[in-house]
Amino acid sequence: MTSISIDRYCSITRWATWHLSYAQVFRWIAALWVIAFTLIIPPLFGWSRYVIEGIQTSCSFDWLTQEPVEKAYVLYLTVLGFFLPLIVIFVCYVRIIRYVVRHRQVMNTAGFVRVHSSPRLGEIVLNSNQSINVCGVRDDTRNSATLTGIYSEKSLEQRQVIQDNDVKAATTCAIIVVLFVLAWGPYTVVALIGIWGDQSLVTPYSNALPVLFCKTSAVYNPVVYALMNKRFRSVVWSFFQHGYSSGDQRTSGSSCNPPP
Question: Are strands 145-149 and 137-140 parallel, antiparallel or unpaired?
Answer without folding.
Answer: antiparallel
